[in-house]
Design goal:
single chain; 7-stranded mixed β-sheet; 5-stranded mixed β-sheet; alpha+beta; about 20% strand; about 350 residues
């Protein structure tokens, strides 16, 4: 965080000439303690004067920042509590999200790349670097399942490892490796209770989500198409769940897509096809169902006909569609409200 603040200082000095190298240029904002706890976790807050105007830097703590629509809501909440101008500061942002931040009218600053401060009459667009993802290895499917079940209150940490492996359909070795992954990343610890190993997460709720989100990836490995008349055969297998835009429509106000989307465990798909006599189709027609083949069984996390909301959010991360992005933001807000607040 200190490095990002120093980068901001150097950038402002280089471009505006308003910050001296040795100046005591920022002060902590005491009002931060009155903000909702989740905002205090996501951002740090420093006051600075720019061109005679008091400003508050809302500094993103995580390189994997929230979507522009969510940032806009956070910025609005902070602005209602601060008498001056609030500036969102982030170390990196994609060109697509940069455009959306401007459309959302959020003043922001990316050190070394861009400064959009409309209240000061500044819209400086320099060379723009594509954000580089942190060099972090994604969690395995089993490890991601463990985290998601914990986040959604499925009682992952309360069971002995052997029982948990049986419940989730993994071998004892696979589950042990998943636990070791989480322990190695500081997300959880492994406790020995009697002769049993149990998984214990080091945090919960929103804090666990922020800590583990950068390690998680879309559950979708591949998409296939089947005829609509095979729908009932698919439901008979009991493990298929409504997914993609169809599930998003179920969770939010977004309309249903033209083609139903379902999720199935990729490792079970060949057997399901053979047993049910299902044939894949080559082209997407109105009488098709889109099948997402997932890295893990959606049924071990889902509670009902729809895939779980967090796996769904991850599966649509690269949709690059504003309508879907808005619905994803709504989905995450609802998840916060239900489980994490």
């Amino acid at each position: 965080m200190d490095k990002l603040l120093n980068d901001v200082k150097a950038y402002l000095h280089e471009i505006l000439g308003v910050v001296g190298v040795d100046d005591e240029w920022v002060t902590l904002w005491a009002g931060a303690s009155q903000l909702p706890f989740y905002l205090q976790e996501l951002y740090s807050f420093s006051q600075v004067e720019l061109l005679g105007n008091p400003c508050l830097l809302m500094i993103c703590r995580d390189i994997n920042s929230e979507s522009p629509a969510i940032v806009r809501k956070h910025w609005g909440t902070v602005s209602n509590c601060y008498s001056g101008d609030v500036i969102y500061v982030v170390g990196g942002v994609s060109s697509y999200n940069r455009k959306r931040l401007i459309e959302q009218c959020v003043p922001f600053l990316v050190p070394g790349n861009q400064m959009y401060l409309p209240m000061l009459g500044i819209d400086l667009r320099e060379h723009f670097k594509q954000r580089k993802k942190q060099d972090k290895q994604d969690l395995s499917a089993a490890a991601q399942v463990l985290v998601l079940r914990e986040l959604l209150g499925r009682g992952t940490g309360s069971l002995p490892a052997k029982e948990l492996a049986c419940l989730l359909g993994y071998s004892a070795m696979t589950l042990t490796r998943a636990i070791n992954e989480l322990v190695g990343r500081g997300v959880a610890t492994a406790e020995i209770v009697g002769r049993e190993k149990r998984l214990k997460f080091s945090s919960n709720g929103h804090h666990l989500w922020e800590k583990s989100k950068s390690y998680m990836n879309t559950p979708v490995k591949k998409h296939v198409l089947i005829a609509e008349h095979d729908y009932h055969h698919l439901i008979d297998c009991a493990e298929a769940k409504v997914a993609g835009e169809s599930a998003l429509a179920g969770y939010t106000m977004m309309g249903d897509p033209k083609n139903l989307v379902m999720a199935v465990n990729a490792s079970e798909w060949p057997g399901i096809k053979k047993m049910m006599g299902i044939e894949e189709r080559d082209g997407l027609d109105f009488d098709c169902i889109k099948i997402e083949l997932w890295r893990y069984n959606p049924a071990v996390i889902a509670d009902g006909a729809l895939v779980d909301p967090l796996s769904l959010w991850l599966s649509l991360e690269h949709a690059n569609n504003e309508r879907i992005e808005i619905a994803r933001d709504e989905l995450l807000e609802k998840t916060w409200s239900k489980w994490w607040r």
